[in-house]
Design goal:
The complex is a heterodimer of chains A (about 450) and B (about 350). With about 450 residues, chain A is of the alpha+beta class. Helices cover about 20% and strands about 25% of the residues of chain A. In chain A, strand 3 and strand 4 form a beta hairpin. In chain A, helix 3 crosses helix 5. Chain A is globular and about 75 Å long. Chain A starts with about 25 loop residues before the first helix and ends in a 14-residue tail after the last helix. Chain B is of the alpha/beta class. Chain B starts with a strand and ends in a 5-residue tail after the last strand. Classes of the chains: A alpha+beta (about 450), B alpha/beta (about 350).
Amino acid sequence: MADEPVVRRRVVKAASGISEARVNGQKTQSQYQPYKDAAWGFINHWYPAVFSKELAEDEVKGIQICGIPIVLRRVDGKVYALKDQCLHRGVRLSEKPMCFNKKTISCWYHGFTFDLKDGKLSTIVANPDDKLVGTTGLTSYPTEEVAGMVFVFVREDDFADEDVPPLSQDLPFRFPENSERFPHPLWPAAPSLLDADAVGHGMHRTGYGNWRIACENGFDNAHILVHKDNTIVHAMEWVLPLGILPTSDDCITVVEDEQGPKGMMQWLFTEKWAPVLENESLGLKVEGLKGRFYRTSVVLPGVLMVENWPGEHIVQYEWYVPITDDLHEYWEVLVKVCPTEKERADFQYKFDRVYKPLCLHGFNDCDLYAREAMQNFYADGTGWDDEQLVATDISPITWRKLASRWNRGIAKPGKGVAGSVKTHSIRFKDTAAGKPPGYFVEQIED
Amino acid sequence: MSQTHTVTFRFADGASRAIDVAEDETLLDAALAGGVPLMHQCRSGSCSSCIATICEGDTSNQPGSSSTLLASEYEAGHRLLCVSRAQSDCTFDLSYGSAEGGVVPVEVNAFVNAIEPIASNVVKLSLELAEGNWLSFKPGQFVQIEVPGVGKLRSYSPVSTEADLPTLELLIRLLPEGVMSSWLKSGANVDDVVKLKGPYGAFFLREKRRAPHIFVAGGTGLAPVLSMIDRMRQIGGRKPPMLLSFGCATSDALFYLDELELRRQWLPGLDTRICVDREPDSCYHNGSPVSALRPEDVTDPDTVAYLCGPQGMIDAATRRLIELGVAPENVFAEQFVPSN
């Protein structure tokens, strides 16, 4: 007996008991299990990478999306994107950009040099005849640049070029194509980034938390309470309800067109949703003169559209781009079609003076802290089981189900990248030095 | 023209491949060019992935190359194929099988997590690999379980996937007088420890085939097939259309219908047909899962099919699929043999 090794159980966490009666009972939860598995995001989708103005000609920048490090370089106006992890020893090329010509980027450490177009290892600076040359390379990522934004198709290493869908399949519903399907008397056609003369102004910053929690906040119709005291609401004398309740089974339309974005449209400010303007027991009543009507929709991989917001003929887009499982890049972009120079200048002025300080900051800052306030509850995984959802949560539940069905892949936990180990001394050192975990690569200064 | 030699690679599963190699090319280059599935990575003599043992013949090192093999390892017959050339006809032994990945079966312990009857004659056995134990498998492959107290081995294909490890789920058909069935009915308890061996079998999902997939499953033959479907879901990227035809004799023998409904929800490209062949009045397709196949199911000449169930079903499904236009080499099948 003495030489029989002891057989031990793994240390396991106890399953939590969930009642079937709950909105998010076990059965409902299993319908969106793939979504619960997507802590690192959905891969094989288009994501915003940088604003065009953030990447000058010949500039190199490193970012991370869905646990994949990506280096961007602009050459002759065109943006190229490669995996930002040298295949030799894993160093990030973007940490110390080294480019000897317009076709390649070299690793600053041992000189592995990659073709910008396809990522192939085209030479090694001090070892040009090495056998490895030409046989291997880094994954490349297709890019698109529209209305002042650079998008990158973040894919798995073996995702085929011919399967890359057009950017429009990962952007919100467009109008007037959908005007008949989703009519609205106040704004017959919301603008789109892809429209001629579209101008996008916005900002992006790092959110400390999982991307799904952030994303759900954007279209959860009960969350507008956090905006009750926002300056813009009162300065403009807007009527913003305390909340909005679904009154009909068809309050949300799920869109699953074969060629097109997959997502859902909420019929806000129609008879399918009732705004709540008063809570008698608390003595609360919304005062205001001007209805501020808007409509939210969300499409994969997690793109919010708020039509008619924060002004007429403007649309607000938001992305919650996964960086790791506990970090995302929060994008807020306002889009307006500006055919003339004067309209462009006016939109820019209004953005700088009103929208950016009072909306993207003043208003949406509340969303940012509300999302961060939910993080501890969900970070260890128990929140998904323990959350007690209510009627208005039909929106996140519908989203979870459709995202489970239509995503193009669930990102694997980051391998060998920033944030795959949360407790590494580098993360502590950087944070102590005043550089919290973020989106862009900090470049080495010589 | 340099001289050529015949080089033979013997895989651990008994498969053997011979190729002609010129004296001035490396064995790895020649083998890969000839389609021999050798494990390899750096191709420059450092990582040792392409290590093999020479049994007959002579090799030389590629001029100018370096190798990380120790002199003693070289003496013992080890060679790194990426930096070796043939000087004569040679034979090499490889430590892995000819199926990609070169998985070697292992023996592990697992705890019983749950024993759940899921149909009139099917039990789901949930196991969890013990601390320090690991057994990976391709979807469709099977493991052997030693029936406690009896010492007999029984084979089952996990219905779960590698992604669910350390948990493994087996679907076990209850047989009167079966040793596994007797143990499940009267002896087995949660927290019992069982011995597992595996993985085995060449019935596994061939990944990255882009043509439509047809799965035909009878009874607990659903297990390997569902493991494959789940793997297809996990792989991500563009998925081929999939059809699952699954049947049992009677509706009270059916199981996993909720699980299949979930797959239909998660996979827009999955069509499922549930069949019952001894109950004309049930709400399911009346007939065998083979009879549910239709001519319009096979429109692509590269269609791939995976079949698992009783021999009769497999024979009928193979005939039918070939008749509908599936190439015989694209039909993969495994019969399950009930054993007492």
